Structure formats: C-alpha cells, structure tokens
Amino acid sequence: MAPPVVEKPFDHTLNRRPSVSNGENAEISDDAARLMAMGYQPQMRRDISTLQLIGVAFMVTASWLGVLGGFTTGVVVGGSVCLIYGLIIVGVFSTFFAITLGELASAMPTAGGQYYWVSVLAPRRLSRPSAFFTGLCNLAGGVVATAGSSVLLGNMVLACVKLYQPSFVIHAWQNWLIGLAFNWTACSVNMSKKTVARTLSVGMFISIAVVIGLVISIPATSPKHTDAKFIFTSTENVSGWNSEGMAFLVGLINANYSFGLIDTSVHLAEDVTNPEKTVPKALLLTVAISFFTAWPLAILLMYCLSDFEAIVSTPTGLPLLELFNFAFRDNKAAAVAMLALVAFCYSIAMASLHAYIVHPALNVPIYALILCATLVSILSTLVMASTTAFNSLAAGVIIFPSLTYTLPAIYSLLPSNKHIKGPFNLGAIGTFSKVMTAAFCIFAIVIYSFPYFMPATASNMNYVSAILGIFCVWAVGDWFIYTYPIKSLRGVRLESIRALPTGFAYDRHFMLWDVGKKESLHVGVRSSLCLFTTSLTPEHKPGSIKVQYGLSHTFDEPNRHVDPSPLMVPLVPNVKGLPQVTVTMHLSPCLAFDMGKEYNDWFSDRLGFSVKLLYIGDHRRKVLGNMGHGISFNTVQAEPWLAIIPATFFLGMLKKSKKPLITFADLAAYLVISQKSYDDVNERLPDKEEMDITKFRANIIVSGAQEAYEEDFWAELQFRGSITMKLTQNCARCSSLNVDYATGKAGTSEAGKMLKKLSKDRRVDPGVKWSPVFGRYGFIIPGSSSVGSVILNVGNKVEVTKRNSQRTITDYPKA
C-alpha cells in the first residue's frame, strides 16, 4: 500500500439513491402487466369505476365550492371582473393542464403520476432529483389543500355561531380545533376505501344539484340585485394595491383555487381499469363540469352583491355567509345554508387525504393517511399566526401542483421524448398545451407568492413562500445511508444510524447458508436473492426485520404457490438454545446461530432448495490480508442502539484484537462510493437506462467529489469532525452487477452488461487483475472520539483528510 499523503480537507456530503420495493403477488391483468413494465408492483385493487373516478376527481376539485370558499379574496382584491373573467382565463389554461396531464397519463398510467413521468422524461443527471422534488411537491399540494379545507370549515362553523349570537367572540385557536376535528374524522373515514368511493360516486350529481338549487334560491329570495354592468365591469379594489393590474393578477387566486388539484384522477390510475383511456377522459370532464358549475355560480353571487361594503366588512369574517343572510333575510336560514355547505365541504375533504405500505384488509395506505393527517394538523396552526391563513393555503393549493405540472410539461417537449405516447395523443395541440401549461404555472408560482393585501404585515402576510421554503429545505436535505440487515437481500435506506467499528448497527448480522453446498449465498451466484426486500420495523420492539418476497417474479414456476405473508425476523434474537454452526466466508471462519425451522423453511420454500438463516450474534470474523492494513483495535465501550438493542449486541467489540473484526460483510466493515463515480457508470448506458445504485452494496454514498473514481485514492475520511474512517482497499466487482432486480435474473438490457463495460477501464488493481474495481472498503478507527455513540445523519459533512499518492493493491490470501 502506498503511504498516505495528508492534504487540505475538502467537504463532501452523504448522499442517497431511492430503492424499489416489491409488493405481494396479484393476478396479472393487462393493466397490472403494464404497471410492472414501468417498474412497479401492483398495490391497489382496481375497483373504482369510470363514473366513480370522474366523481372523485370533480368532488376533490370542487370548483363551485372554491368560488364560495375563496369569495372574500376574489371580490375584495380584484372586484367582480377578477372573478368572472378570471374563471374563464383559468378555465382555458386548466384545459391545457388536462390535455398535458392526459397525454402523459395515457403513456405512463401510474399512481405516482408527475414524479414518475419526470423520472422517465428528464435527462439522466436530473432524473432523480427532479423526480424527488416533484413527488415532494405533490405531497405538499395534497397536505396544503386539506389544511386549507380544515381552516375553511372552521371559519364557516364559527361564522355561523357569530351570526346567530352576535356577542360571540371568535378566536383563532377555536378555528384550529374545529379544523383539527374535521381533519382527523376525515382521516378515519378514509380508512374505508369503498365507503368513500360509493359516497363520491353519487357526490357529483348531488354537487350539481346543490349548484342548481343555489342558482335558483338565492336570486329568488334576495331583495336587491345588481346589474350586468356591475357584474362584468366592476373593479372594486380594497386590497391596498395601487396598481389595478397587479390587483387583478393577485386576485386571480380565487379563480385558480377553484381549479386546484385537477390531477386527482392521475393518482387513481392504479384503481381503475384501462387507465390510459379512462384517466384522460376524467381529466377533461373534470375541467368541463367544474367550469360550467363554477362560472354561473360566480355570476349569481355578483348579481346578488348589492351592498358591497356591508358584505365585505361583515363581523362574521365570512362575506359568503353575509350574502346568504342578505338573500334569505333570516340569520337562521343563512346559518342552516352555511352548515349544509360545511357538511358538503367535509364530504369532499374526505377524499383529499387519499394518498398512496397498503393495509391488506382495508386496501388503503393507512400509514400514508396518518402521516398526511399529522402534517395537516401541524400546517393548519398557521391560522393562529395569520388573519389571512386561508389565502396562504389557497396559494399553496395552486403553487405546489403547478410545480408538479411544470417539469413534466417541459421535459416532455425534449426531442428524446417524442416517442413516448399513449392512446390519447393530440399531436400539435398537445405540444401547444404543454407550452401553455409550463408558462402559466411559472406565472402562478411567481404572482401568487405576493401578498394579497398591502401594506403587508405579520398578520396578513402571504406565508406560502415560507411553506414552500420549508419543503424545499426538506427536499435538499433528504439523502440516505444504506444498511443490509440480511446479507445479499435488498437493503434498507435510512436517514440516520449508529456507526460502529464492526459496521453500521445491525448491518449484515444475518445471512443465508446453502445447506447442500455449505456456503453463504450471494447475488452473484443466486440472482433470485434480489427478489427479497427488507425493511426495519422498530414498532416491534426491540426491532424486527420485515422480509417480503416478490412472488410475481417467479416466472419459471407458474404453478408454484407460496404464502405471500412476510417474515418477521427479530433484530436481536434470543440465542439461548439455538444451535451453533461454523461457517467460513472468504477464508475467514466464525460461529453463527441457526435461527431454526420456521425461518429456514420460509426461505427454503421460496428459493426451492434447503437453506438456513444464520445470525452472527456476538461472534465476529477476522479481516484477512491487507484489507485492514495499519489498523489496530482496542477495547471499545458498547452502547445499545437507541436504548433498544441490548448491550450484548456489541459484545464482539469488547474483545481485544490486533486486526479489525467484521460481521457477515464480505471483506470489510464499510463500503464507500462517490456519487460522481456512480454518474460515470450511468454514462456508459443508453439515455433511458440507469443502474440501481443498491447493486453496488455501498453503505455510504458521498457527493461532492470533483472527478469520477477519485475515491480510489482516498485514505481517510472524517465524519462530523469526531469519527475517523480508514479506507484500505478498492472493491473488486463480480457478476452481481448484471442482475436485473425486477426479474431476479441476468439482465438483458445494456445494464446487464455492466461488469463487461467496467472491465474495459476499471481493472486497475493488480491484486485482483481479472475484476474491475469500484468503491473503497473502510474501517472506523477505534481511537477516534465518540466511536459507538455517534449517530451518522444524512447530510452530514464528510472530510477527506488523507489521500494516497497512488492506488492501493489488494493482497488477499488465496484458497
């Protein structure tokens, strides 16, 4: 090994790549096969009809309710013309949105929608960050919309109380608590997918009937009316903006809010049959029905707005309720009408939490629902900080979805994507629609971030820019670390983990042992191992590994049936009474515990031959050759992981040894690669192919390298300024790189030839001259401070504190 040269440290950052998990088996229909071809395992039953899809989409968009809910902003900021003509303008652009989304959904019908489209359409280097950002904005849009609904419902209820009892004093905390009740009740109702779908299947007709009833009853009972001149030319502006043009643009928020979340049907593509035709139809019909219910209602409201000053300055804080009161001339009737709208708004709010693990009995993504409801509860606290909280949330309903429409529209216009088409394709009209979609979305993102009222103060500020900033910080900082609880199965990506001398906590503490061949299993020899996915479930204290098998990928044995239930493996098993066996990996022997018949049979049934699941417990393997060159281990204090895993978990580190010790990892405790080198690997593939980064089995992925493969010369890294990692040798690669993780077989695409591609210029280590190398083996130096108690977090800075003047040469014992 060449002597290390100390250089000026430079910063790197822990990086991430997403992984794909396989779901349970399903009967493969044409729709499911199409979804699997896009790299996804079907999760939802396709039990929503076309009519139900249109009904759900229309009910979530609810344009006429958007007109009523945002009535204050539309009237006060821009006057009647802003609302009447704004709906026409936004209706036209919403049609462009529907055509754009419809074409893309027809070509790639998946519940992921925009984030998946971006991952396919974007240039390779922008694919993952663009997809991640788009997916996050999609989540944010749904959360903000639901938070806005909860705030609006609270406003409505309190306004009714104020109208009926004028001495009642409205407080912001009351609004928040009422919204909180609606939010969590809606979450509970969403636990029954069929109940929601059946309710909303008739909701569209009820909705249209309510609009017709309002159009007839309000003008019939209103004592005074305005004229056509007021309706179509009034520019009342009490917003404080000096420019009428700016007031009009900002005031478009009401009209635009009425067409928010028109992409609902896109995200239900996996719940309907023939989605490549059904979803575009639902998108266009949603826009059409929305406009022809919202626009007449807006004209009606302006027709009955005879006392502008009294209505906009109402003590209830809700001009719509004052308009009802003025029309019905009875505060009780007005309150009943408003509460009826509250009930209807609530029924619609139930659908907005339908996000995408799916509960096997309920057939709904129960954890996603709870997460969304929690985020909504937090975000709706904005009502206690701002008197215009609803306006800020309304802007978010437009801005976040606009961000998700913009990137797919732009990327789809690239010449390399012209061949991506579905049954719904409008040619030049579709191209023009995408240009208009991108242009209007950029306009909306900028304009709707301005304050609605001037001068801007802390209480009336438009906080959507702050909300957007929070989500952007989340997007930038969300990188991942990888751990592999069971050797050679699919790994788990984490945001934080305890770093130990023998490797990350619970990394490769289990492995599968071939009973017949008496050897450990790895993907390069048994490619079907990649069909097993793992996840950590700390709710099963002291922690469990959940193992699932992708049954739909067992193509060679179509008549073989295996129980699809997952296997729960205790993270720290009770080894008392378990038999011990001697195993040898890479000439390094150790003892291990046989987990027993239940676990062994589960894996054997799926692999088709006899295997054992082994647990290393407090045993450890010696590192051979010069893999751990120059590292001397001393006694290290053991500390339990998050105070959950018993201290006996780390007993292997308490032993004194002149060489480092490892678990079931091949040759070293850690494997480090750089993002730059991974990008170079992808440059060797055609534009639409990309290597799954988990094939490289790295624990730590570092961004910020200046050149590809510069980690070949890294000698020492420092994390958080307190923990030092020695990098000893480069990692020799095998045929596992060629495995297609979607099928569990050797890949047939260019990615399936990656080992050969790397061999052309990466066979740079004479010690393993027949293999290309990629990545560096590493060991944490026990003498560095806080070892065993340091939690490495995603986004931590990494310093390269030493480099080698030339590449190291592997010297490992031969069999």
UniProtKB/TrEMBL annotation:
The chain crosses the membrane at residues 51-71, 77-99, 131-153, 199-220, 282-303, 334-357, 364-387, 393-414, 426-451, 463-484. It is a multi-pass membrane protein. InterPro entries: AA/rel_permease1, MoCF_Sase_C, MOCOS_middle, Pyrv_Knase-like_insert_dom_sf. Keywords: Membrane, Transmembrane, Transmembrane helix, Transport. Signal peptide: none annotated. It comes from the Eukaryota. It holds the Pfam family MOSC_N. Its main location: membrane. Residues 639-801 form the MOSC domain. One of its GO terms (molecular function) is transmembrane transporter activity. It is found in: Membrane. GO terms for cellular component: membrane. PANTHER family: AMINO-ACID PERMEASE BAT1, TRANSPORTER, PUTATIVE (EUROFUNG)-RELATED. This is Amino acid polyamine transporter I.
